[in-house]
Design goal:
Strand content: 25-35%
CATH class of the largest domain: Alpha Beta
CATH topology of the largest domain: Nucleotidyltransferase, domain 5
CATH superfamily of the largest domain: ATPase, nucleotide binding domain
Order of helices and strands: EEEEEEHEEHEHEH
CATH architecture of the largest domain: 2-Layer Sandwich
Radius of gyration: 18 Å
Largest sheet: 5 strands, mixed
Length: 190
């Protein structure tokens, strides 16, 4: 039995306020697949676990999960050391990663902690799993992503069953621009 060849090369980018997945066709006659944040989506955040064993989940659909509403009720909607678990915005993770900041909260007398880097790794891998259907994926990373951060992201993706590689942001931008020009050229000739 032979393995089916992939039809697209996939890329995933999770910014502070937006996200996107980009499928570049390996066959020029196919169209490019782009999935961006739309009106039915919200800025990406992670739903923080309330109990031991609960997994971190990505929340990027609108309206946001009520756990992250920021309202005083239900009590788990606010994040704090004495209040409970809510949402960890990806914007906070990207900002906090430079100083190795962690998010701490208490729920049912148990203290939980999530580092900014672990939040980024969880968010990126969740987005990739949701949108690229278990195909290999390149994750767009900023120029200042340190070596330990790169390895952490790759390790997290591997532990979640994701075949990931990393792609620097300027290179991803160049490839996107080039693929659009190539696609237009093929359409004119076809």
């Amino acid at each position: 039995m032979t393995e089916a060849k992939p039809e697209y090369a996939w890329g995933v980018s999770v910014g502070s306020m937006s996200w996107s997945t980009y499928g570049l066709p390996l066959d020029p006659s196919r169209g490019v697949v782009v999935r961006n944040r739309t009106a039915k989506h919200t800025a990406a955040s992670l739903l923080l676990p309330r109990t031991v064993g609960e997994s971190i989940r990505l929340d990027h659909w609108g309206p946001s999960h009520p756990r992250g509403s920021g309202r005083s009720w239900p009590p788990e909607a606010i994040v704090g050391k004495e209040v409970g678990a809510g949402r960890f915005p990806m914007a906070a993770a990207w900002t906090g990663r430079h100083d190795n900041l962690s998010w701490q909260w208490k729920f049912d007398q148990q203290t939980h902690e999530l580092s900014s880097l672990n939040a980024i790794a969880a968010g990126v891998s969740e987005l990739a799993k949701a949108h690229v259907n278990d195909h290999p994926v390149s994750i767009v990373i900023p120029n200042d992503f340190r070596q330990q951060e790169q390895q952490k992201l790759l390790d997290t993706c591997t532990s979640r069953g994701l075949n990931a590689s990393l792609l620097w942001l300027p290179i991803a931008a160049s490839l996107t621009c080039g693929s659009r020009r190539f696609s237009r050229h093929c359409q004119k000739r076809g």
